[in-house]
Sequence to fold (210 residues):
Amino acid sequence: MIANIKNYRMTVEEYLVWEEEQPLRHEYIEGEAYAMTGGTMPHVDIAVNLTSLLRNFLRGTGCKVRAHDAKVKVSDLGPYFYPDLLVTCDERDRRIIKETRYPKLIMEVLSPSTAGFDSLSETLCERGDKFRFYRRLESLQEYALIDADKMAVDCYRRGISGRWELTSYPEDSEDKENPILELTSIDFQYLLALVYEEIEFPQALPRDDL
Fold:
């Protein structure tokens, strides 16, 4: 997640050298670096659940799941992002050391302070900023946003025509009582409840306390 946004004007080359010396990870967008920090406990727990499910599902397929320390390089000029999870099935990514270039699936777990940047809402950044950059990746077939405050997933898929289409879970699930999360880019189908297994959602404050 993106924490306090502190800007550092620099070239891509300067950023790559500078970030290796920093105690925190930084995403890089159009000449500026943005400090990253850890998320809420539900955020962390959901990411762990997803990593476990995807790792077991992808075993032996040639695809790899990578977690939040895996940097994604959109182009030689940036941006550089750290999604919560990604899946790559490209042989070229198996040999990389510092950044993934060909993700098929990217997943972000949204906390209240990151929702405006990671999703298509309008809180921290202009509408759709991060997704706008991710769509430049020709390898990307699916982009999923997982809510950490309630059981909800928005999944954007690249259609045959190249246009992106939205499917929301559990709203668009055939079985509303036991909704299935589908990630069609990797033929993944699991109960949505398993993504949120043992998650304690934040409690809303009583109206008098707001």
Remarks:
- The chain is about 20% helix and 25% strand.
